[in-house]
């Protein structure tokens, strides 16, 4: 049972991590964001699944 | 030739904005979330405590079909929302920032401009939907039992046409509005109204494209494709093409003002 949980949940955790990392890379690259960048770092890291999504949708300027 | 240039430029834009990474991942997580929580619900409740001594909770485990439909339902809500939001600025943002004038200062045909953008976004969405549903299917078969892969793939292909309709609605609003937010709002509003309308008159308009996911549900349960599924998908394709045509006309008129 425990093995199954790990096997199924681990890939999802990895996907979520990729999402966070890509969002942070993008945040580093863009010149301007809506609102201060450090707030976006917090949102991306602690915002769970919604954090990176919200950043990708409304974070960038232009 | 010219069409391909715009298409490639759009694809490159989607790469630059990491859409090719985050949209598939988000769709996959949506598709997997519900079947997974449904499976682990008894364990979650047990470890969360708060259950009085001696109380037994009987949560029926969903069947394979029900679990698979959970994936579709998630995409129906959140997937559509994401699809609308990532395409809300496709043209409207270029209209408001002046990029549009820049592009049309070159000899570009409106129809090429519109259809290339549409196809590029559709490529991204189709790949995301297929990947998400295959992952969802994998989790469902591991947790709940067997479901034929061809059945899932057929459902996924029908399902893509539902998204094609959504995207063409977004394109219409894109073609004459300059505010991406307004485009998203009006598109979602339209989808909600169409859904409400369909659910009120669903015994009359059995061909409504909004019923595609319902028919996919019956297909997953029974294994047989009803004619209604073909009809509603056919209507979805026709309406999408008409809307695309309409949006090209509206875009031309925009230029004359």
Order of helices and strands of chain A: HHH
Beta-strand percentage of chain B?
under 5%
Count all strands of chain A and give the number: 0
Q: Count of DSSP E strands of chain B?
A: 0
Q: What is the H-and-E element order of chain B?
A: HHHHHHHHHH
Structure description:
The complex is a heterodimer of chains A (62) and B (257). Chain A is mainly alpha-helical. Chain A has helices at residues 2-29, 37-46, 50-59. Chain A has one domain (2-59). Helix content of chain A is 77%, strand content 0%. In chain A, α1 packs antiparallel against α2 (37-46) and α2 packs antiparallel against α3 (50-59). Chain A is elongated and about 45 Å long. Helix content of chain B is 80%, strand content 0%. Chain B is elongated. The model of chain B has no long low-confidence stretch (mean pLDDT 91). At the A-B interface, α1 and α3 of A face α2, α3 and α6 of B.
Secondary structure: elements and pairs:
The complex is a heterodimer of chains A (about 60) and B (about 260).
Chain A: H1 2-29, H2 37-46, H3 50-59
Helix pairs in contact in A: 1-2, 1-3, 2-3
Chain B: H1 2-16, H2 19-48, H3 64-87, H4 92-97, H5 99-104, H6 110-144, H7 149-176, H8 180-200, H9 212-222, H10 227-256
What structural keywords apply?
heterodimer; A: mainly alpha; B: mainly alpha; 80% helix; elongated
Summarize the structure.
With 62 residues, chain A is mostly helical.
């Amino acid at each position: 049972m425990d093995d199954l949980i790990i096997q199924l949940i681990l890939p999802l955790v990895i996907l979520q991590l990729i999402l966070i990392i890509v969002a942070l890379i993008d945040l580093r690259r863009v010149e301007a964001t809506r609102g201060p960048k450090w707030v976006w770092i917090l949102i991306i890291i602690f915002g769970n699944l919604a954090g990176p999504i919200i950043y990708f949708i409304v974070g960038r300027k232009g | 030739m010219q069409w391909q240039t715009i298409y490639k430029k759009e694809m490159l834009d989607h790469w630059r904005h990491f859409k090719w990474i985050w949209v598939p991942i988000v769709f996959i997580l949506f598709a997997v979330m519900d079947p997974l929580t449904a499976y682990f619900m008894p364990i979650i409740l047990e470890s969360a405590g708060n259950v009085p001594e001696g109380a037994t909770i009987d949560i029926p485990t969903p069947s394979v079909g029900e679990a698979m439909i959970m994936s579709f339902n998630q995409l129906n809500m959140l997937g559509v929302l994401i699809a609308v939001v990532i395409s809300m600025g496709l043209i409207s943002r270029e209209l408001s920032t002046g990029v549009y004038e820049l592009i049309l200062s070159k000899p570009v045909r409106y129809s090429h401009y519109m259809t290339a953008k549409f196809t590029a976004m559709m490529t991204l969405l189709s790949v995301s939907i297929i990947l998400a549903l295959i992952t969802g299917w994998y989790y469902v078969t591991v947790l709940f039992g067997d479901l034929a892969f061809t059945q899932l793939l057929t459902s996924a292909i029908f399902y893509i046409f539902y998204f094609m309709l959504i995207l063409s609605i977004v394109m219409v609003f894109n073609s004459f509005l300059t505010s991406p937010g307004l485009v998203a709002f009006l598109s979602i509003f339209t989808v909600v109204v169409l859904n409400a309308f369909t659910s009120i008159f669903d015994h009359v308009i059995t061909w409504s494209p909004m019923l595609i996911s319902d028919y996919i549900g019956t297909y997953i349960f029974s294994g047989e494709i009803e004619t209604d599924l073909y009809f509603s998908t056919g209507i979805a394709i026709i309406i999408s093409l008409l809307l695309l045509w309409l949006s090209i006309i509206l875009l031309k008129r925009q230029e004359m003002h």
